[in-house]
Amino acid sequence: MSTYREEQLKSQEMVVRHLREASATERDQLLRMCRDYLRFREDVRHHQRRHLSAICTHACFRSQLSACCNKDGIITFFADLVINALCAPPQDLDRLLASLGQSRGDLKCVYLGTQGCCWHIKPLICEMFLCDRALEEMRAADPRAVETWRRLETEAKRFRWPDRPVLFDMLESRFLAAGLCSPLMYLHNSPGLVRIKRKAGLA
Ligand code: SF4
Ligand code: SF4
Asked: Is 122 in the pocket of ligand 2 (CB under 6 A)?
């Protein structure tokens, strides 16, 4: 098993276990913290359904040549794991863990299972990825859709870019305070992101 896959698996197991043992109050509090983010993800999903699904289906899904999921090492933030584990049905989480535990020997994303992506709520980086071709086709069909997409990209930053208090940092802090630690806690581990927090007086 690659170091990357192992790191992902251990962190996913830790988050799922912690949330399964957490009280209803704790889970409610966490879900409340994520409310704006989940609303934002709905907006993104709506935009994608309206402006991108036809483009992506034609360009990639039919031919199964999607550039989106052909890398084995995508960036997942610790908060991505927490939000997914809070929202996914238990059987989906079991499927994700089982799929992650089996090395496949190809170079596709470790989360690509037999029925597609194993996440219930995909990592933010995946959700906001748009290849040049899709962007250009979206622009050709409706230039205003690109403007909306740019606005959504800016909004996405508000949840993870720590030049102000952000949800992704708060979720990491909360799990750290509960004694859990993961290399995916980039808002606490990445020197670049910690520097941004320091500059903003947040670390
Ligand atoms: S964003 Fe681009 S690479 Fe990804 S599925 Fe759509 S067309 Fe394919
Ligand atoms: S996590 Fe899901 S959407 Fe993201 S690259 Fe992997 S399979 Fe694709």
From this structure: yes
What b-and-e string marks burial along 150-167, b requiring 16 or more CB atoms within 10 Å of the CB? eebeeebeebbbbeeebb
Among 69, 83, 104, which is best to mutate for testing ligand 2, by the most ligand atoms less than 8 A from CB?
Answer: 69
What pTM was computed for the model?
0.93
Q: Is 31 in the pocket of ligand 1 (CB under 6 A)?
A: no
> In this predicted model, what pLDDT tens digit does every residue of 85-114 receive, in sequence order?
999 999 999 999 999 998 877 768 889 887
Whether residue 180 has its Cβ less than 6 Å from ligand 2 = no
What pLDDT, in 10s, does the model give residues 136-156?
A: 999 999 999 999 999 999 999
